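[stage:ingest] chain + small molecule (protoporphyrin IX containing FE)
[stage:ingest] validated
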Amino acid sequence: MLSGTLSLISNPLPSPHWILGPFTFDVGILSIFGDLDAKYKEELKKNYFIMDKGYNSFPTNIPGTTYNKALTERSPGKRDLLAYLMNFKDENGNHLTENQIADNIIGVLFAAQDTTASVLTWILKYLHDYPKLLESVKAEQMAIYESNERGNRPLTWAQTRSVRLTHKVILESLRMASIISFTFREAVADVEYKGYLIPRGWKVMPLFRNIHHNPEFFEDPHKFDPSRFENS
Ligand code: HEM
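[stage:predict] done
[stage:export] tokens:
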């Protein structure tokens, strides 16, 4: 996938983000629904991208719809997010409503899918810009691929922790691209910070992009340099 997608970068169309979007969606679906039947997965994918375009009401739990089938055909023993949400009880023993379950699923899919596709797209762009780095990342990945009998054995958690160069490239891409530029918090009480009063009820907006590109924290901040995360 890496080489195929990289060749698309030199080509104006299609955008790698279009390719990576459905890929990250599959990962999201796997963690939420487990090993879902391919037919339902395709239908959910169609529905999700309609929702993603227009923020429509997906998933609609009407009998006969794909979402309803995905919900009703589950075995309670499964250990994925949907099973967790369906089995969840509050302190009074109440289960979540179907709308609450749907909201949570949309929330996680939305939070996971586009962010991951965006950062993967930026990683590909930076690797494309730094061919020597690309070679080193490929060598790191290929060593694992080979030791897993050319992909016949699954990736282990320990292996995902061992790819030090790849990890630094991910961190530096996240810093440089700052794909989520900000978040906000509401002050629940009056707060004094560096001589400023933030009154209760006011919103504070930390700008990640400014922090990530501030030379006080990151020397030569506009330079793509994964080695700055050497000790991370
Ligand atoms: C590179 C990828 C990602 C980036 C940059 C990113 C970034 C963020 C940021 C900045 C927030 C808001 C934090 C805050 O204001 O407190 C957030 C929240 C959240 N993200 Fe991500 N995220 C990424 C991937 C994911 C993935 C893969 C998932 C799920 C599998 C996910 C699930 C969530 C959820 C559920 C929240 C809300 C948490 C809460 O409100 O307690 N994110 N993410």
